[in-house]
Design brief:
Layout: E1 17-18, E2 59-60, H1 87-95, H2 105-112, H3 130-135, H4 145-155, H5 159-163, H6 177-183, H7 187-195, H8 224-230, H9 234-241, H10 260-267, H11 272-292, H12 309-316, H13 319-326, E3 341-347, E4 350-356, H14 368-375, H15 381-384, H16 390-425, H17 441-471, H18 475-481, H19 483-503, H20 508-522, H21 532-570, H22 594-605, H23 620-674, H24 678-683, E5 688-694, E6 700-711, H25 745-761
Parallel strand pairs: 1-2
Antiparallel strand pairs: 3-4, 4-6, 5-6
Amino acid sequence: MSDSDSDGSQSPKPRLNLEFHDKDTLAAFDKAGKTSDGKKEKPPMDSAIQKESHDYSPVIGINFDFLPKPNNGNNPPDIDPLKIYGRDRIFHAVTNEDVEDLANLQYYLEKTMKCLTNKEFKDPSTGKTCLLKAMWNLKNGMNGTIPLLLEIAEKGDYLKDLVNAAYTNEYYHGQTALHIAIEKRNLPLVQLLMKNKANVHAKADGAFFQKKKKGVSFYFGELPLSLAACTNQLNMVKYLLNNPYRNADLEAKDTHGNTVLHALVLVADNTEENTEIVTRMYDEILKISVKVNPELKLEETTNWEGLTPLKLAAKTGKVELFKHILQREITEPEYRHLSRKFTEWTYGPVHASLYDLSSVDTHERDSVLETIVFKSNASNRHHMIVLEPINHLLEEKWKRFAARIFYLKFLLYILYMIIFTVTAYNRPLKGQPPFPFEGTTKDSLRLVGDIIVMFGAVYILICQIVYFWKRRPSLQILMMDGYFEILFFLQAVILLCSGIAYLAGSEVYVALMVFALVIGWVNMLYYTRGFQQTGIYSVMIQKTILRDMLRFLFVYLVFLFGFAAALVTLTGEAPQEAANGTEQSETASSYGGLYITSLELFKFTIGMGDLEFNENLKFKHFFMFLLILYVILTYILLLNMLIALMSETVNKISNESKNIWKLQRAATILDIERFLPRSLRKRFKSGHCLSVGPTPKGTPDERYCFRVEEMVWGSWEKNLANINEEPGDTEKGKLMSLPKTPKGWSHWVAKAREKSKEEEELPLNSVSTSPADV
């Protein structure tokens, strides 16, 4: 063992690695100190300012100079110092593209039986090799040392190891030279690496490449193909999927089970520029998948959470990409089966479209509808609920069955609350609970009312427990549309506690019962979501309470407690003696305690305070100053700020209130649908099974579709491939093989007249009155 290896200046490391090296390169293993706090800093991927670390793990080295050699009794001759290569020299050469300095590198490696992948030639803090270093230092898209390094590795029979050597630290773990070349948008370099056995499925799964709520990171799906797609390199994507060496697998998944489509969903951010890039790349990859494997259904691939790209977009609130996927319409015949929207017929701005309901409607498990309403924590999910076909789909469910059931439940709840109110109002006033049953008509009715009220509380409690168990909503979801679920739960629990207190003989049951009664009537607002105007108004009330009232109450309670404590302390001195030796009257009892003082100060807040009772105080003027200051801060400042904030909140959320109301009503619709028998759910199933064209195999492409008729002024002059030739002819499900260009108004008017004449000659019962009647 060489002397430098026994250096005790550094504390021992927990690991012990065994490597071979000679005395000429032992200096590369000099130890570098840690940071002042003893922790390792986050190293950069590569930096021209911060040099690589020398903090190697302890090694056991063998000095080859002391090994016997035939025909030479002692030591072999030392290598010329100019031909000795350490890590720093190699890194310096590749950084400066100094090919001449590396001229003797292969000779040195062969002479010393070393490889460029040995640990002594890497950065110990990141695992960075000389090839990775060269990849970060390109000039005009190339570094002349890269082909030389690859040639040396090929002659040393470790080419694959060098090309696929990756970062090893926790931040950049798994990143290879291929990832860097793709990030540099350098197709020739990618081609060179692929030619030299680069792994096209290497996963960059370090902390920097994971999605974080805090800190800087870039999640792109870990795989080289996903990186090319997420950085908008279509040519790179096409090359990785079709090259002479190793083609990337479109179904390959990262450590989270995400494919390239999932990665595109996760990098979307709803901005206009990002949406344009992501949607174009998304569609192009789908089209490429048809060429690679016509039977491949890439959009149906799920990640480890069981989410398809569409469901992932719904869960994460990627509204623009979600809208694009739902309403994607491709007119090219060879790619038409990739569409989820099919224009059935158009007349001017009127469009009748068929939307694919696969994975959208609730007849499938873990549908998109359920994901948006019950499983998404996105703050903008109310914007997704108004997109087509979801908007019309929910409207149809509401009209077909949900509205009638909802109104029936509303009437039953009103009846329940009336019984609850009458029963509470006619409670016995004399004696101690539990009261004996006297057999009178009044007692009999009260007993029946008590039983109904308690059974109702048990039913409400069970429903809410089932709701929380199935949905398991986060706090954010509860704050968005779960207020009433919490209030219903509290109503049931408090009412049952009141019944227990009554049976235990405690008069506390009255307070609990009255509190439950108040909450019960407040919960009547839940049923306002069945009516648009009152539902929107209820949303505004909820948002105002959460956004403004809570902040106001927090600040107000701070002021109230602070001034109450000050006034109680100020009026708490010993009573003073009067001039005739008698004691003055005690300080007004209004400020005799913290509770009483808080109540008196609250009167000042609502303008009912009295300043006349503090004449005998020792610090009268200072007392008056505190009261006036309190009035200014609360009655004048806080209350007016509250009014201004509430006005601003109402103006701000007025546009969102309707969408939030629709989201709340959607939750009600799906809850009602869940409790329907399977036979009724099948009966109320939306949509129709239609053939929307041929599959790549040539067989009919049958899907469950939902028809939506809408006014689209912005796209009525675009080329649209119609399934039906004529407006209203929705019985014909024949697919037009080529897109038709809409003609002028004169053509449509003339055609409408001809159609009208034809209809006059047909029997009345053979003609559909409107497209919606079909």
